[in-house]
Amino acid sequence: MRLNKYLSEKGLCSRREADDWIGSGRVEINRRIALLGTPVEDGDEVRVDGRVVSERKAAHVTIVFNKPVGVTCTTEARVRDNIIDFIGHEQRIFPIGRLDKDSEGLILLTSDGDIVNTLLRAEHGHEKEYLVEVDRPVSDGFLASMQRGVNILDTRTLPCKAWRTGPHSFRIVLTQGLNRQIRRMCEHFGYEVIALQRTRFVNIELGNLQLGYWRDLSAAEMRQLLA
After folding, report:
1. What's the whole-model pTM score?
2. Residue spans per domain, the chain
3. Which CATH fold would you assign to the domain 3-52?
4. Predicted confidence (pLDDT) per residue in 157-203, tens digit
5. Which residues are annotated as catalytic?
């Protein structure tokens, strides 16, 4: 088994994060610094930061969290107000994707590194729905332009759904995740985002989950999410 897959299956990190650990020399196999692509054989002793990786494979967990503004979606313990310390889960979990520090709402976290790439792969077109408040009245022309696609970050955003929910607010459904995409799209047309909340990821909805709280995904939700 490839080393990055081995680490992700132990619930330590995603495969991408495992590659970063290996590349920085934090992982050893049989007391020797491992290299990218190194296989793990039966009986090998794997260590991360000098600590032996347990042979016991814990049951994976995936949770949905209602992230408050100010919490940063990173596993780096040195970052103040990081999402991992805020949740304080008993298992080692990591976020699936990101939600800006200035935004709030639904984000999934998991201990299963194998599902992360599946859920984030762009060609799967997974829907993410947001409620957006802006600094001036939302016009029909603005919404139509947002739906057609906007030129930002040296590319054009994919067509999307958007509809008004109030004089200064609208909902938008994206199938991609460019850096600060909604804020940049709005800025292109002279709008400033005042508040941004993610309310849905594919079939998982925020519902009545209170801000700052989390819950486990049900088996049925997980099956539908991965279908």
Report:
1. 0.76
2. 3-52, 62-119+209-226, 127-201
3. 3.10.290
4. 999 999 999 999 999 999 998 999 999 999 999 999 999 999 999 99
5. 100
